[in-house]
Each structure stands twice: as structure tokens, then as C-alpha cells.
Amino acid sequence: MREDGTGKRLIVVVDDEPDIRDLVRLHLERGGFQVECFGDAESFLSFLEKNLPELVILDLMLPDIHGTEVCRMLRDGDRTSALPMIMLTALGEEADRVLGLELGADDYVSKPFSPRELVSRVKAVLRRGGRLEEAGSIMRAGARIALDVERFETNVDGRKVNLTPTEFRILRTLAEGKGRVYSRKRLLEILWEGEKIVFERTIDVHIRNLRKKLGDAGEAIKNVRGIGYKLET
Fold this sequence. Notes:
It is built from 8 helices and 12 strands.
């Protein structure tokens, strides 16, 4: 857990609109978080050189570097590849939401949004990446994939693979099922705790990213047409 000197979990908000930054800060601080805000990508990236927050709320439409490019930079960095991320966007089209997820965002919230909903999403994403109940245990996802549920690490043939919290939770859920088929709706219920605004295609995008990161070992994740997904063990 990354915290500031007060013991609170540190959340970073990157948005060029001061009113939105102030509103999000207010509600996150009421939710018990420490908050740092930035109005552009450059200042945020400079902050990251010496600081690693618990989660980033990132607007797509920034004045200097587009949010999608910032997302790529974070996912390509060794320190930030698994950093939980929620994208903010004023673009309501499904294609824009899919793009954010394909780039590695854990979740998205479209403007205008409810601040309480955003805080709820933050807490849900953090729970996915937090300590899990089987402390110190190794879970197998087939012969080649191993999940360390205490360290939040995934290995394929002994090679570490950096997954986002959402990707890790999906893989862990499928591994726990031991060949059980999970519908998209059921995976959404597990990951987003019944959040109604999340659309089912979200799961498809995360599965596609997960398979890509796992390489040919990702072929063990099977699409059961018309139903959902399972892990072939």
C-alpha cells in the first residue's frame, strides 16, 4: 500500500479543469484519501519520477499530452505498468471507452459524473489490487501460469508478467473456477460489484489485453460462444 506521511492512500487526479479537480479532491478526501492534483501531463509525469500513488484518475483531454498517450507511457514503464488507473472522458461514445480500456485503464467514468460514483469506483479498483485472503499462497492457472495472491504477481513459465489489478482479478476468478464458465454478467458482478453503468464489452476488452500479456499461455482462456469465458486447466 502506497501512502503519504499521514497514513492515507495517495490518489492522483490529472484533469485540466480546476472545478473538476476541486470537486474530485473534496469527495476523495471525504472518503479518507490523500489527493494530489495536476492540470497537465508534464507536471504529473515529473511527480511520478519520485512518487508512486495508489491510483491515478486520468482525463483524456489534457492540454499538452493526450491522456491516451499518458496511459501508454504508464503501461510501458517498469514502475508504473501495474498502476491502477481510471480514465475520465467527456467523450460518451462506446469506441472511446473501449480505447481507454484497450490501453490498459482499469475503469472509466464519463463526464458529467457523480463524484460519489467516482469514489465508489476508486475503492472498487483498489480492492482488486489489495491483499487477498490466501496470504502467501501460490495459485496455479494451468500448467504454465502461477499467481502469487499475496504479492499480486503473475508468472508465465517463471517469467514475471505485469497485470493491472482488473486483469489479475479476472485471471484469479477464472483460475478459482477450475474450468467453470463465467458469463460476462457474472464477471462484471464480481469485479464491479453490480455497478449498473459498466457495459458488458468491458470484459471482452480486458480479456483481450490479458491474453496478449500472457502470450501463447493466454490460449488457456477460452471464449464460450454466447455465454462467457473459462480457463482451460
